[in-house]
Amino acid sequence: MSDGAPTRRLRVLHLEDSDLDHELAMAHLQRAGLAVESRRIESRSEFETELQGDWDLILSDYNLPGFSGLQALDMLRESDRVWPFILVSGEIGEDTAVEAMRNGASDYLLKNNLSRLAPAMENAIEAAEARRARAAADEELQASRQRLAELAQHLQTSVELERSAIAREIHDDVGGSLTALNFDLAWIVRHAGSEPVRARATAALETVTHAIEASQRIMHNLRPAILEQGLVAALQWMASRYEKRTGIECVLHTSRDSLPLPTGVPLVAYRTAQEALTNVSKHAQATRVRLDLLLTPDMLSLEISDNGRGLSNRDLAKARSFGIRGLHERAVTVGGWVDLSSSSKGTTLILSIPMTAAETEADTPADAHGEAELSHDPSAWGDL
Ligand SMILES: Nc1ncnc2c1ncn2[C@@H]1O[C@H](COP(=O)(O)OP(=O)(O)O)[C@@H](O)[C@H]1O
Ligand SMILES: [Mg+2]
Fold first, then answer.
1. How far, in Å, from the CA of 321 to the mean position of ligand 2?
2. Measured at the alpha carbon of residue 128, what is the angle toward residues 126 and 134, in degrees to the nearest 5?
3. Tens place of pLDDT for every residue, the chain, 384 residues?
4. What CA–CA distance (Å, rounded) separates 205 from 186?
5. Structural domains of the chain sorted by starting position, each given as residue range(s) with its CATH number in brackets
6. How far is 365 from 374, CA to CA, in rounded Å?
7. Is the distance from CB of 26 to CB of 36 less than 8 angstroms?
8. What is the DSSP letter of 194?
9. Which candidate, 25, 28, 24, 30, places its Cα nearest to that of 7?
């Protein structure tokens, strides 16, 4: 085969009832310089046994006593073996050849043209190796995609946990101190002996009030306290604030006021609406956007549709855009998914979460660990 390199002996299983034909075939291979280790068999039961073995290639006569090359090919296909299979026959009709190739044979040869045997074998083995390599690469790619998706989901969850922890610290430490300062300064304003002290304390009070508002705003962005009042209330509030801030008409339609939702689901829905609305104001050039929240006992569906310019696959493939990609990963953390459809009349993003899937994932840890676990859950923090 290749010059210089030590050639591995090819293990060839030969289904052939004539010893003479077997010797002849092996002689052809030897003459072509192939180092071959072969075994001749001729019955179905022997073939069945050898399917458990370790071969590089199967060479098979078409006609065998009580068995046939095509049947052997069927058995090979039904096994999980992927060895190349070459059919050899005294005479092979075109129909048979076509059928054999369709059933997965690598090649077929006539017994009176065995000079083709060595190159046919080499080709078949190379093709099988290439197929194996491609299958291995596909598998590796699949596994790597899976790992990447898991990492992305893990990051989404850790970001929420981290945000929740930071918001709690701001609330407990910064918020607590600022409130105390606020009281003290108010007391000083009331009891100030001189006008300059009162003026100074009043100014300080204003600064502190400003700092309290800022910390509340930061806490809200980190972890929306409004979610404690339920998803519907939170989305209602988001829609009206959005309309005021951007001037884009924004309405929420919902089938019912509320429904107990599994842990994690309200926050995923809230963040999805948040990102979708931000996209509308950033990219869509829309004048109207509509939120539709459909809650049934089995399914939550949240639809955000705008009347903007629409988006293309090129937009979604932007290397540095992670908003919509992040939504997909976020949805997966509660067993849901995100669909996107778009035309020149606007864009619709739909989040769907089957309740059963989300429940089984989310409920177990909370039930198992009670209160302690709740404090680690970004969406079940009732202390703000
Ligand atoms: N509602 C929308 N209308 C039109 N284009 C949109 C809309 N939402 C997203 N896009 C397009 O899709 C791209 C990807 O969005 P996204 O993943 O959220 O990333 P980013 O907002 O950071 O660019 C945007 O850059 C924009 O071109
Ligand atoms: Mg975005």
1. 7
2. 105
3. 445 555 678 999 999 999 999 999 999 999 999 999 999 999 999 999 999 999 999 999 998 999 999 999 999 999 988 899 999 988 778 888 888 899 889 999 988 889 999 999 999 999 989 988 999 999 999 999 999 989 988 998 899 889 989 988 998 889 999 999 999 999 999 999 999 999 999 999 999 999 999 999 899 888 888 888 899 999 999 999 999 999 999 999 998 777 788 888 999 999 999 999 999 999 999 999 999 999 888 899 999 999 999 999 889 888 888 899 999 999 999 999 999 999 999 999 999 999 875 444 433 333 333 333 333 333 333 332
4. 7
5. 10-136 (3.40.50.2300), 226-384 (3.30.565.10)
6. 9
7. yes
8. S
9. 30
Assess contact for 334 and 358: CB atoms under 8 A: yes
In total, the chain counts a number of residues equal to 384
Mutation to probe ligand 1, out of 315, 322, 328, 349 (largest number of atoms < 8 A from CB): 315
Where are any strands of DSSP class E within the chain? 10-15, 36-41, 57-61, 63-64, 67-68, 85-89, 107-110, 249-254, 288-295, 299-306, 337-343, 346-354
Q: Which amino acid is at 318?
A: K
State if residue 283 touches ligand 1 by the CB under 6 angstroms criterion. yes
68 lines ligand 1 (CB under 6 A): no
pTM across the whole model: 0.65
User: For residue 134, what are its two tokens?
Assistant: 């491609």
